[in-house]
Amino acid sequence: MISLKTHGKSIEQVEITHISSNGVWLLSLEKELFMSYEDFPWFKDVPLRKILNVEESQPGHFYWPDLDVDLTVEIIEHPERFPLKMH
What single string gives the DSSP state of each residue in 46-87? Predict the structure, then answer.
């Protein structure tokens, strides 16, 4: 398990708890969230360091600067409500 503290002014802690062939598990504020590669293809086939480099700028708002991916808890929990957009 790798724990990453956020950078900057935020004191929130976000942690990537598991990466598998199916997706990525993220822990924030005692809530574990699963991001499947099917719903979140930005995380598939990228170097591990890019997935682990995540910041929580405010509670429930996550940003991966190396991937330019910006997600919220709501998007992760209900990807069907949000159209897939990749740059």
Answer: S-HHHHH--EEEETTEEEETTTTEEEEHHHHH-GGGS-----
* CB count in 10 Å sphere of residue 76: 21
pTM of the predicted model over 0.85:
no
Tell me how far apart the alpha carbons of residues 85 and 47 are, in angstroms, rounded to a whole number: 21
Token readout for 23 is: 């997706």
Domain count, the chain: 1
* C-beta contacts of 75-79 below 8 A and 24+ residues apart: 76/26, 76/33, 76/34, 76/35, 76/40, 77/33, 79/39, 79/40
Domain around 70? 2-81
Q: pLDDT band at 85, cuts 50/70/90?
A: low
86 falls within a domain: no
pLDDT in tens, 63-73: 999 999 999 99
